[in-house]
Amino acid sequence: MRGVRLPTVTIEAEPSALPLDVARAALVIIDMQRDFLEPGGFGESLGNDVSRLAAAIGPCRSLLERARALGMLVVHTREGHRPDLADAPRAKVERGDPRLRIGAPGPMGRILVRGEPGHAIVAALAPRDGEPVVDKPGKGAFHATDLASILQNRGIDTLIVCGVTTEVCVHTTVREANDRGYRCLVPGDACASYFPEFHAVGLAMIKAQGGIFGWVSDSRRVLAALPS
Ligand code: TIU
Hints:
The chain has 228 residues and is an alpha/beta fold. Helix content is 31%, strand content 20%. The strands form 3 sheets. Strands 3, 4, 7, 8, 9, 10 and 11 form a 7-stranded parallel sheet that branches. Strands 1-2 form a two-stranded antiparallel ribbon. β5 (105-106) and β6 (109-110) form a beta hairpin. It is globular. The protein binds tricarbonodiimidic diamide (TIU). The site of tricarbonodiimidic diamide (TIU) has 10 residues, from α6.
């Protein structure tokens, strides 16, 4: 599809169908890192059953493959901190069991620290050359990152936001993006949470009140609408 003029399509979603100019849309995959999805990382250190997040990998991969085929901008994000933790607020670090805190050694290296094995994106969704990887110290992907510049320089107006976790980093990013004027479409099955009830209510909050934060759909309906 590269070099071919990309169309505007209509994606079935709630609370309403969303027209999407494919050339001005980006796929933003939030924090699909081993630290959240695999045992021994940050997610498990917080007391979570990390196996709950695996369901999002397949739908994320389907969206990623189509976005790549279309030449859409793909942005990957990773939550994590500098090895010296200089960018980690004390209020974030000093929570929970000190043996399991950010920066503590674990089976996948130091917890939530850049460059450690646990910080990497899972193999099925590994970034390719040319796909921006945004390292973020917070939950939202705009806070203290260059994501806004990356999107602006490509003329992006609509984000398809997926990844983990629904009510934490996906939600925070969607809220940040919504306030910056982006239309955000969230394919619910390409997101996951450690808490099924938070996943459900997180998606419900996005599309409530006429789409107060954005639109909710699923990977099947997004893929059906995009050129194949
Ligand atoms: N704990 C939790 O659900 N999530 C995070 O801490 N970060 C992200 O969502 N990436």
